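Sample log: DUF2127 domain-containing protein.
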Amino acid sequence: MKFEGLKAIAVVDGVKGLLALCLALSVNVIAKQDLHQLAAQIMQNWPISPNNYYVNLLLTFVEKIIQQDHVLVIIISLMYACFRFVIAYGLWHKLRWTEWFAFISGSLYIPFELYAIYQNPSHVNVAVLLFNLIVVAYLYWVLKRGEKALSIMTK
């Protein structure tokens, strides 16, 4: 049986894994720097003053999060990246258990995407929901076709 769509989904999951890995590395790099100094350097080219009240409020908030929980953010990002890489590998090689895993994990996002549309109806939120629904529906179709093939082979 050919399910070439699984390779496309595997690529998307691999990209998600790479983005999570980039997040973990970025948080690690940013955690070692003085955010006020970094923001001042970046904002030299922008018409925003680094002494702006809201900029300082945002930087203080980010510094507190990074100083307290940066290790937790890095660990969660690395775990998510590993999760996505495993799914990508399994879908690429058509491993049955990863098809189920991808179907279930994709289905779990749907209520959150619906809530995002409820909170902020936008074209982007609707597009994300539609894309995920297409992926989940395709994975459902792959799983059902695989079950039919197994039942025919065992008879």
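Observation: The mean pLDDT is 82.
Observation: The CA atoms of residues 35 and 63 lie 7 Å apart.
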